[in-house]
Amino acid sequence: MKYATSPTPSRSNSSLLGMSSRAASPLPHPANYRGDCMSATTKSYKYLRRFVKFDQMDFEYAMWQMVYLFIAPKKVYRNFNYRKHTKSQFARDDPAFLVLLMACLCVTSIGMAWVLSLGFTQTILFTLYVVFVDCIFCGMVVATILWLIANRYLRDRNSDFDMEWGYAFDVHLNAFFPPLILLHFIQLFFYHPLIRWDSFLSTFIGNTIWLMALGHYIYITFLGFDVVPSLKNTRIILVTLPLLFIFYVLTLIIGWNLSVSLMYYYHYRVL
Q1: Secondary structure element (H or E) that encloses residue 115, with its range
Q2: What phi and psi values does residue 231 have, to the nearest 5 degrees?
Q3: Contact 224/171 with Cβ under 8 angstroms?
Q4: pTM for this predicted structure
């Protein structure tokens, strides 16, 4: 296979990352191996520069990641670990995943605008808002919060490795994709015939989709943190899952249809 995955290294061997692990290996270095660590500015410049070079983006691999984020997200993070071994960084150096994610946002936003009966200008504004505010700006805010929490409270004090901000942003993008498909695509097929009505069944269906979406986000975020050897007690992220379920039950009891509320919010945001 072109994109075969390697087993995830155990935490007990995490100290062998980098030059020491390569020096102890009888195998030759990979062709793209870097023994040094580039600065955050250099990484950012290299990443942004490739935005205008579509011929250098690996869209096939990015699509593979999107599929496996649904069926086997652990395999996606095994490849992040492999990148750390070969390129001395966890974060993506190829913006293909972000480009495809933005394309998906544009397509699903047009579908949602049609469900909301928005006009042409409103559809353009809605799409721009979803892409640049909901995805990129909010993603940067969430990534910064996750990055600060990880390095301040979850990092092993005996380790001198700090989690990269770029990787925190990648974790958010990975976790963002399944909720995007569930809430902005699959939900649209059920909204008018089943979800938008004032009944318990409608609330149950709409809120269950929300439960699945947010559950995916939390679990994939946990996997992203758990794969970093220098972080400990990452399972605390999973504590939010039972809290989410309690919130889900409360919304059913009080009859609050989250999907209808989301649609109203999106509709009046662009009026």
Answers
A1: helix 96-115
A2: -100, 140
A3: yes
A4: 0.80
Contact 181, 210 (CB under 8 A): no
Nearest to 222 by CA among 236, 209, 212, 210: 236
Nearest-angstrom CA–CA distance, 259 and 147: 30
d(CA 42, CA 54): 20
- 30-33: list long-range contacts, CB under 8 Å, 24+ apart: 30/86, 32/86, 32/87, 33/86, 33/87
pLDDT digits (tens, 9 = 90+) for 11-46: 444 433 343 333 344 444 444 444 444 555 565 556
- For residue 54, give Cα distances in angstroms to 49, 59, 142, 174: 10, 9, 27, 21
Residues near 34 by beta carbon (within 8 Å), at least 6 away in sequence: 86, 87, 88
Q: In this predicted model, what pLDDT tens digit does every residue of 221-253 receive, in sequence order?
A: 999 999 888 898 899 999 999 999 999 999 999
Which amino acid is residue 108, in one-letter code?
T
Query: Distance between CA 161 and CA 167 in Å, rounded?
Result: 13
Tokens matching residue 30: 């990979």
Place of tokens 């902005």: 184
In angstroms, rounded to a whole number, what is the distance separating the alpha carbons of residues 89 and 18? 10
Which ranges of 130-230 does DSSP label H, i.e. alpha helix? Answer: 138-149, 165-181, 188-190, 200-226
**Mutual angle of helices 200-226 and 240-254, in 10-degree steps:** 170
